[in-house]
Amino acid sequence: MLKILRNFLPFKAIGDKPLARILNYLDIFGLFQVDPFGYPLLLKRIVIFIAGWPTYWRLAVANKLTIEGGNYLKNLPNTNVLFISNHQTYFADVITFYHIFSAAKWGMYRKLYPFYLFSPRAKTFYVAARETMKSGFIPKLFSLAGAIMVDRSWRAKGENVQRGVDTSAADSVQQGLNYGWVVTFPQGTTTAYAPIRKGTAHLIKDNNPVVVPVVIDGFRRAFNKTGLTYKKRNTNLKVRFKQPIYFDKDQPLEEIVAMVTKIIEQNVPENIAEWKAEAENLNS
């Protein structure tokens, strides 16, 4: 109970201005608090509140959401937690995480009862492609809830490209980790069994966060690629949290990549690997 009550207390203010610190300690509702990227927490909570009601219906009423391993969220620290997950749609996946994290703030770890939307968890961020979050009004609205936007070095406008790595992305993710929880999809795409990008391994080595693996299923069957339109209702949506782990700072990047691939269950199944090999041999 004390842990849950602490979730509603204001965090230490960012900066050294005495007035800001005083207002922050009195500011239970987050009226004066801003995140490291300059967004007011009140604005983030309003966005989550507005987006939360219709998306709750899509996840828990039109479909059937099952949460496994939610108890692993109980004793997590309030900062420097990195959730790594496979990816199936642009928005439905991360929206589901926001619902679950907000419910956990209220001490609910297995079911969603949407009264948590009146005080959702606002110190949450997610890594997303900049071009996706700038593609329309709804993505731009969702970005206000905590998007850490990065420029993908390998893909743009649906085509493979080669360009310099976005070096500012690591700094932005570090800021998010220092302030709260960050969700990342280390494959960088909604394609199943895509390779894990080394950027995630660098984040783990540089920040030494608590890493929480997550495996999701059913979203690709229930929604279209954006996650905003139904494909099939009454679909079983599954979110499975695994035991939090720490990586060794001295682990090689390749080893971290291999471990991440395994723990989010994105190793290519043997039959698919054989099929791909045969296809490549036929085309060569």
Automatic annotation (TrEMBL):
One of its GO terms (molecular function) is 1-acylglycerol-3-phosphate O-acyltransferase activity. The keyword Nucleotide-binding does not apply. InterPro entries: Plipid/glycerol_acylTrfase. Residues 81-219 form the Phospholipid/glycerol acyltransferase domain. Transmembrane segments: none annotated. Keywords: Acyltransferase, Transferase. Pfam families: Acyltransferase (PF01553). GO terms for biological process: phosphatidic acid biosynthetic process. SMART domains: PlsC. Pathway: Lipid metabolism. PANTHER family: 1-ACYL-SN-GLYCEROL-3-PHOSPHATE ACYLTRANSFERASE. This is 1-acyl-sn-glycerol-3-phosphate acyltransferase. The lineage of its organism: Bacteria, Pseudomonadati, Bacteroidota, Cytophagia, Cytophagales.
